[in-house]
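To whoever is on call:

I kicked off a structure prediction for a single chain this morning and the downstream step that reads the tokens threw a length-mismatch warning. I double-checked the sequence; it's 232 residues and nothing unusual in it as far as I can see. Pasting both halves so you can look.
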Amino acid sequence: MADPQISTTLIPQIQNPAPTNGNSLFGTLLEVFDGNRAKAKEYMHSFKCWWALNEEKTVFNIPYKWVALCLSYMKGPKVEDWAEVQQEFMNDRKSTRRLPEFKSHWRDFEKAFKDTFMDIAESIKAENDLKSLKITSGDIDSYIATFMKLLKMAGYMESEHGSLELFKKGLPTGLNIWIINNSIAPPSTLKGWIEATHTKQLKYLQTLEFSNKKKPWPQALALAKHHGVRSH
């Protein structure tokens, strides 16, 4: 029975692996993971770095042992029941001809860990960051890029009314008022409001360019290109 392979990008690559040292492992031992979701991503990253440093060691040559080692650093009331279930699941799989060398042991375990501890934590953090996001230094492009990234991480749909309200909340009051006053009908979608902010920013930059009698600003050129406006 062939086993599906996992991507080689799973393990961080190091240019100059440390020399072997018998059966001992290199690097600092992992800190115990107690089920704190805020620390889940850091824990998994630390484990993979430790793994990369010791990839020639026996324990990191057998996927079943990868999981067992990772589970051995999970302790505390918030995680011990989950860890015990995962170990029993691994043992059951091994007893039904799922050989320890099968890489699906690690692939399935990592997905279970991510589903339980990482996705929820990241979405909550993204939502909090989204609610506090504000445009800085008039950099509308950076604000939009950051907003759209956090929106996806938080699990919002672009079409949701709440998405538009969050976007407007991060803009200066004056900019939102300008869009309302200079639109036949204020945009009712996130995409429409983003286009309106680009239009306002373009006019602002072109006004500065004209009043200062300087060459077109890079920001103005970029926005003009975005809107199909020819700069003279």
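Update from on-call: the warning came from a stale cache, not from the record. Cleared it. Sanity check on the structure: The radius of gyration is 26 Å.
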